[in-house]
Amino acid sequence: MTSIAERLALWAEELAPTEEDLALARRSLHDTVAVTLAAREDPLVPLVAPLPEEARWAALAHVLSFDDVHMPSTSHVSAVCVPAVLATGGDARAYLGAAGVMARLGTALGWAHYTSGWHATCTAGAPAAAAGAALALGLGPEGVAAAMALAVPAAGGVRNAFGTSAKPLQVGFAAAAGVRAARLVAAGADADPTALDQWLALVGGDAAAVECAGPAVPGGLAIKLFPCCYSLQRPIGAVRRLLAEEPLAAPVERVRVTTLTSTVGPLISHRPTSGAEGRLSMEYALAATLLDQAPGFGSFTDAAVGRPAAAALMDRTEVRLVEGGGGLLDGETRLSVELADGTRREAVLDLPPGAPGRPPTAADLATKLAACGADVPGLVGDLDWSGAAALLRAALPAGAAG
């Protein structure tokens, strides 16, 4: 029986991208380069300076929690796959092969894999990065399969890293592991492709769920419009919907949000004290949206999280969880805001802006790109894969101190 790695490698090698696939790749390239450049002054920059470029780029693509998400696998596909492909001279087709492998492996790992404590971006990311790098290096289907198998020892990452620098760093490690594996295969290393099958079983995946049919990235990718955890995009959208209907006429007395338990899995911080914790806090995201209307980078600094007004709103916020769900976008978010004058305002939202079922508009994307790097020549406008690699190398050289 053909191994999973061999089936995925042959699929990736024979991939003939559609116009829709190529449009997704173009958007992913722009989005990922933008969020990476947005982090060029982050404190993580000097920490990742000794790492290879694919690891630096992947860690910085993830550190601001602004990178895209594949909902069926609960993984940040492009933060891993774009850097791995750029570092090895690949193009849109290599990216789509990597992204498709990651989406399929992540979906086979399933929601139970994520809820048991694994960080699927890293577990599925290392073999996917290997596939993308091997495609970029022209290793053929046997080389792609061997590279995926050789990346298995590094295919790990845990959710206990959330809220610390370990979270983006382990995303960088996944990208580096894949590139390292592909380069070793190119140099003559071999590996048993069935290692991927064994790994998938060990971490609770379902081999029968690895399906090679469909578009390059089944389910598409969700684009974040606010720089924080994807679990917060819908609650933020609900507050913004409420505010768009009519400005609040009195001070807020009480905020209540109701959602399924599965939708808040990553939200581990309830009284954040730092920007990193604020990106993982339902209470703070609601407060920041009420205060800032459209939460941006400035909303998720340590100083912003420490605002007395934000603390007061968090104290007045109640999160009501309804048991159930099997993903971050299951069900809907219900928001209720009670005002000092006795009135109550409510909003309900099923899909946040930027979700695959509610894709970002051209204006949404332009606003995001401008916020991330309007001052970086070459980011806004046409950007190809070789130009993107050159742009990142110039803006984030090895050893840069931010």
TrEMBL record:
This is 2-methylcitrate dehydratase PrpD. It holds the Pfam family MmgE_PrpD_C. GO terms for molecular function: lyase activity. Belongs to the PrpD family. SUPFAM superfamilies: 2-methylcitrate dehydratase PrpD (SSF103378). It comes from Streptomyces zhaozhouensis. Residues 58-196 form the MmgE/PrpD N-terminal domain. Residues 226-376 form the MmgE/PrpD C-terminal domain. It comes from the Bacteria. InterPro entries: MmgE/PrpD_sf, MmgE/PrpD_sf_1, MmgE/PrpD_sf_2, MmgE_PrpD, MmgE_PrpD_C, MmgE_PrpD_N.
